[in-house]
Amino acid sequence: MDLTLLYRGPLASCDYDCPYCPFAKRRDTGEQLRADRAALERFTDWARQQGSEDWLSILFTPWGEGLVRSWYRRALTELSRLPHVRRVAIQTNLSCRTDWLEAADLDTVALWCTYHPGQTPYDRFLGKCRDLAGRGVRFSVGVVGQPEHLDAARRLRADLPGHVYLWVNAAEGRAYTDEEAGIWTGIDPLFPYSRHPHASAGLPCRTGESVVSVDGAGTVRRCHFVPAPLGNLYDGSFRAALRPRPCPLTACDCHIGYVHLNTLPLYDVFAGGVLERIPAAVPATAPGAGPRLSLE
Fold it and tell me: pLDDT-based confidence at 285, cuts 50/70/90?
């Protein structure tokens, strides 16, 4: 089968401390880091063995920052070179070095990068983006749509290579006026998909059928947001539970969730780049696009 897996192991430490981050962070102990490494290596071993059964697409969505850990860089490199892996990607703040990508298959590996103003110098982040572009790495870049991030987002859109998609995530719990939404849409034409949570109760979704979430113990769920288990990855019990099923939640407000709703056109919008959040055609915006207005 053609299976997409969203893997999230026990790692919860991050080198940033963004005040708007919805993830609860901790300082991982040596024991916790070893447990995360072992869990990831077990998952990678499982993926390696699926060549006779499945085509795999894998997105790592850690609570913390994975690429500062050698085992995540190694996992992406190794998985990218497996012939039955269509895509392997990770969400990252891009604080890590980039030379590890020299060993990866650039036709398969991809990065979903988020810029966090105040956590890293702008020029350092932009320099890494330009390095990725120069290497031919597939990547998207984004910011959280906080008012204080507007100037940085405009600057990024002007400075990034034109083929790099810059996305804007609606800030958690924030309501945008039409004027505010228009400003962000001037930077990211796809921002309207992020602006409001999507009603999902009873609607068909690919999660639980061709898309699943996996934790460090191998417990398989339909997605990160529905806690009911479907089985376990390593004993194969999850396979019998895979089938079309409606969403049990009232709404879905996270891109890695609602992108899989059958009722939205996002598999067409992001054709070939669903996991790394790269549209099939990068929306056209002029450098510095958007009304020259303030959100303050």
Answer: low
| pLDDT tier at 197, thresholds 50, 70, 90 | very high
Could you give the CA distance from residue 23 to residue 16 in angstroms, rounded to a whole number?
12
Biggest CA-to-CA distance, the chain: 56
The pair phi, psi for residue 112, each rounded to 5°, is: -110, 105
With beta carbons less than 8 A apart as the criterion, state whether 249 and 209 touch. no
Q: Which residue has the tokens 């055609």?
A: 281
Q: Dihedrals φ, ψ of 191, to 5°?
A: -55, -35
- Helix residue spans in the chain (DSSP H): 30-48, 70-80, 122-135, 150-159, 178-187, 191-195, 255-258, 266-269
Question: Which three-class secondary structure state does DSSP give residue 53?
Answer: coil
- Percent pLDDT > 70 in the chain is 94
Q: Is residue 16 over pLDDT 90? A: no
**Partner residues linked to 142 by β-bridges:** 114, 167
Strand locations in the chain (E): 2-8, 55-60, 85-92, 109-114, 138-144, 166-169, 198-199, 204-205, 211-215, 219-223, 226-232, 245-246, 251-252
